[in-house]
Amino acid sequence: MEVAESDTNAAPAVRSKGIGAYISANLRQYGLLFALIAVMVFFQIVTDGTLLRAVNVTNLLLQNSYIIIMALGMLVVIVSGNIDLSVGSVMGFIGALAAVLIVELNQPVILTILICLVTGGLIGAAQGYWVAYWKIPSFIVTLAGMLVFRGLSLWLLEGQSVGPFPKEFQLIATGFVPDIFPTGLGAWLAEFFGARKVNVLALVTGIAAAALVVWIGLRQRAQNKAYGIEDEPKSFFIARTAIIATALIFVMYKLSLFRGMPNVLITMGVLTVIYAFITETTTVGRRIYALGGNQKAAKLSGIKTERLTFLAFANMGVLAAAAGLVFAARLNTATPKAGFALELDVIAAVFIGGASMSGGVGTIVGAVVGAFLMGVLNNGMSIMGIGIDYQQMIKGLVLLAAVIFDVYNKNKQG
Amino acid sequence: MALLSMQNISKTFPGVKALDRVSLDVQKGEIHAVVGENGAGKSTLMKILSGVYAHGDYDGDILFDGKPARFAGISDSEKQGIIIIHQELALVPQLSIAENIFLGNECASNGVIDWRRTNQFTEELLAKVGLVEAPTTKVDNIGVGKQQLVEIAKALSKDVKLLILDEPTAALQENDSRKLLDLMLELKAQGVTCIIISHKLNEVRYVADSVTVIRDGMTVSKLDASKGLSEDEIVRDMVGRDMTHRFPDHKRTPGKVLLEVEGWNVWHPEHAERQVIRNASFNVRAGEVVGIAGLMGSGRTELAMSIFGRSYGRNISGEVRLNGKTVDVSSVDRAIDAGISYVTEDRKALGLVLDETIRFNTTLANLEGVSSGSVLKRNEETKVAERYRKALAIRTPSVFQKTVNLSGGNQQKVVLAKWLFTAPEVLILDEPTRGIDVGAKYEIYSIINDLAAEGKGVVMISSEMPELLGMCDRIYVMNEGALVGELAAGDASQERIMSLIVNE
Questions:
Q1: Tens digits of per-residue pLDDT, B453-482?
Q2: b/e map of A287-320 (b: 16 or more CB within 10 Å)?
Q3: Residues of B numbered 320-349 whose beta carbons fall under 8 angstroms of chain A's beta carbons: which are they?
Q4: Tell me: the pLDDT tens digits for A339-349?
Q5: Which of A233-242, B204-213, B252-261, B332-341 has the lowest mean pLDDT?
Q6: For A324, which of A94, A202, A293, B420 could close a Cys bridge (C-beta 3.0–4.6 Å)?
Q7: Is B43 on the interface with A (CB under 8 A)?
């Protein structure tokens, strides 16, 4: 039957192919990417090129690795409509646990890592239990956890720093993936680039990753076209893909000039891909977004909301433990202050990455880029010799600006 | 004399012309009804009138009380005595009636509230609107009907010249609605001018002195009640065509018994001593539409939700059989697996993830159906969403539209799509046409008929008795948690249903 169109209130779709309309609808994603590029260009100039030196790029990745690892879990927790304030303390506690097990009790490294990850999972599960099944606000449960685990690490370390760790444990954070290509090739490339040496594996991995990004992008585009799904304008696709591919090759090239790929980069990269996949293309990921978007509707759709919340926290615990191991290995010692106030950096990264405090919104890639943005700010300002006082203020304002930008954008669309 | 004259009002949203040279004239001391389908532009027009869209955001002129009005915000229009009461009430549930009435407008000196004066004024106002409650009663503890009266009392406290009521009876029971409409007539006698926005044409006929019909952002007709209003005429103007049948034709041949509920008892989730459902038993046949009639608060929603995965209540006992076999409905996913679906009465709060797309919502209750090994096949998902968009005529440019941007009728169709995709045998529809316009209602009825024709069992809960009478093969009558009667379609009438309720 025919009925008059009754949808005059509906917001216009992005169907009008105008590039302007497309930008305004997707301002957030592009904005973040451009902000990162702008910040990098800025610091590259004002630090006379120090920012993107091979050694500093390597440093930048190592410095931010544990934040990024935790941001992955935090994104999931925040999308589910919760928050975890305890991750800094849990991270410190796990570092302390590792130090006690290895240094004082002489346990093997592998066993220690296993025990630490399981302990992290149990800590997350314990907190998740109260949040999920007792409906106690996560803010309160994890605030309590933050205090408890800070105290526990103090107790465990008896207020002392414990270290150093054996070499094999340090490798978690400070090791590099050895080059598997013949040295002759590296030497030839080094001559070609006019560099001292080149790690061919890093360079090849960078090119392969870039190729993969292009291939996935093209495939998705072809599929969207086949199914008649609205897509971003071609020029945007080309520009965006080119920027990401170039950036990947560039970073890996820089790494190859120093010592190659840090082990942590592999861990981080693999985890990021896994979590991006889980959140975007699995039923569990979809359900977490539904849970955060409208818990009651999710529950009435047959989604086990309690179990999901519980799992989000358990997962966060495991990742906090992983970050704790990386942190301890990097410092080569466990200190009672390790991870202090770090939860705030992690949470800030996730919100800068576009997640919403009320849940249901946010992406893994956004959180990772958000963490890098904060990392580059930290690093760049340190190189410039800006005091910690100004650094804190600037970071705070960046966080506020990012969230204001989100809200403004949303209001404009609504 | 015209109190309000809106002339050639146009308002454009990016890409959509919401209002196109609409005019609205309201005489002093009259009740003026604005009717139109959802999305016709009524709400936009009222937002312009109350200053939500500031002067300059729209084209056209507003004359209020003979003077040009240019409101920069709601506070401007309120100062002039234009007060709007929205469909979703704006009361603070934790505060008392008196506190709510004087919220932002407290009887205070130097910031110290004079409670004696506040409560005294409140009592006077409550007397005016005929609400018998203490001023100190928390708003949370009174029903929606009474809350509506509190809103009106609040408006009266502000020296109102023009009172706008947006769908005031949408959430009200028949007798509460009648009380509210009578209050409007009383206020009119006291000289208050009212605009009422409503879908319910019998109510419009009951109170309105004149009617403006809006369709697709344009004024289609202005009718004068003194010459007599015909519902058919209004409906024709609203939808732009004759609508001789409100309910699509249907022929049903119910088959074997599909769903049986026996001895169902439910207690209140917080007040353990209160029994909400008392020994309810009913059944639905394949290809049959069964109605559940009853007043609001009679336990209809509670019955449905407690059956659907124990989503309501505690200490639930009783048996649910499907095709003669007892099924486990102790959690929502089990109920879905068993073949039962429940379409909620509150699609915004309980039905949809509003910030997500049509596609997201369509597949939410059956993600297994669009995934392999828990990895989503997104193209498959798009196909499914597209299929339901076409089948249910969901009006939207694409399935990637966020559901928050859809009209009520289209939102309801998305919720229906979600449940149809779980391939249920029995669907429980709770107020499936609440707050949606005449045209969309007809479409929902057609969908229900199609479902019955496919052999599904449909349970339909509704507060609108004509709807039950027009659609159902059998009607159960519910009162105070018990099913007090069962009527076959041929024997049922509004009077018989009411008498069953009253006689209990």
A1: 999 999 999 988 888 988 999 999 998 899
A2: bbbbbbbbbebbbbbbbbbbebbbbbbbbbbbbb
A3: 331-333, 335-336, 342, 344, 349
A4: 888 999 999 99
A5: A233-242
A6: A94
A7: yes
CB A100 within 8 A of CB A93: no
Residue numbers in A near B13 (CB within 8 A): 9, 11-12
Query: Using CB atoms and an 8 Å cut-off, which of residues 375-414 of chain B contact chain A?
Result: 375-376, 378-379, 382-383, 393, 395-398, 400-402, 404-407, 409-410
In angstroms, the separation between the Cα of residue B193 and the nearest Cα of chain A is 28
Domains located in chain B, CATH noted: 2-239 (3.40.50.300), 245-339+424-504 (3.40.50.300), 352-422 (no CATH)
Tokens of A398: 């960046």
Q: B239 in contact with A at a CB cutoff of 8 Å?
A: yes
Return the sign of the alpha-carbon dihedral for residues B98, B104, B105, B106: positive
Task: Say which residue the tokens 């949040």 belong to.
Answer: A131
Domains in chain A, start-ordered, CATH in brackets?
56-175+265-406 (1.10.3470), 177-261 (no CATH)
Q: Where do we find the tokens 């970071």?
A: A395
Structure tokens, A287: 């359900």
Return the beta strands (E) in B101-179 as ranges.
108-109, 112-113, 162-166
Which chain B residues are within 8 Å of A81, Cβ to Cβ?
A: none
SS (H, E, C) chain A: CCCCCCCCCCCCCCCCCCHHHHHHHCHHHHHHHHHHHHHHHHHHHHCCCCCCCHHHHHHHHHHHHHHHHHHHHHHHHHHCCCCCCCHHHHHHHHHHHHHHHHHHCCCCHHHHHHHHHHHHHHHHHHHHHHHHHHCCCHHHHHHHHHHHHHHHHHHHHCCCCECCCCHHHHHHHHCECCCCCCHHHHHHHHHHHCCCCCCHHHHHHHHHHHHHHHHHHHHHHHHHHHCCCCCCCHHHHHHHHHHHHHHHHHHHHHHHHCCCCEHHHHHHHHHHHHHHHHHHHEHHHHHHHHHHHCHHHHHHCCCCHHHHHHHHHHHHHHHHHHHHHHHHHHHCCECCCCCCCHHHHHHHHHHHCCCCCCCCCCCHHHHHHHHHHHHHHHHHHHHHCCCHHHHHHHHHHHHHHHHHHHHHHHHHHC
Q: Which two tokens stand for residue B204?
A: 């419009």
Counting Cβ atoms within 10 Å, is residue B315 exposed (0-12), middle (13-18) or buried (19+)?
exposed
The pLDDT assigned to A307 comes to 96
User: Residue A11: pLDDT above 70?
Assistant: no
Residue of B nearest to A2 (CA): B439
Q: What is the pLDDT of residues B158-191, one digit of tens each?
A: 888 999 998 888 777 777 888 889 989 998 998 8
Q: Please list the residues that pair with B353 across neighbouring strands.
A: none
Q: What DSSP designation does B16 have? A: E
**C-alpha to C-alpha distance for B409 and B316, rounded to whole angstroms:** 34
Instruction: DSSP letter for B138, please.
Output: B
Per-window interface: A 366-385 vs B, CB < 8 A:
none
Helix axes A109-134, A87-99, angle to 10 degrees: 150
Beta bridge pairs of residue B214? B219
Residues 6+ apart with CB under 8 A from A323: A65, A66, A67, A69, A70, A87, A91, A339
Are the Cβ atoms of B395 and A1 closer than 8 angstroms? no
- Distances in Å between the Cα of A288 and the Cα atoms of A16, A130, B45, B351 are 32, 18, 38, 16
Query: Any idea what DSSP says for residue B155?
Result: H
What is the DSSP track for B338-402? Answer: HTEEEE-S-IIIII--TTSBHHHHHHGGGGGGGEETTEE-HHHHHHHHHHHHHHTT---S-TTSB
- pLDDT score, position A21: 65
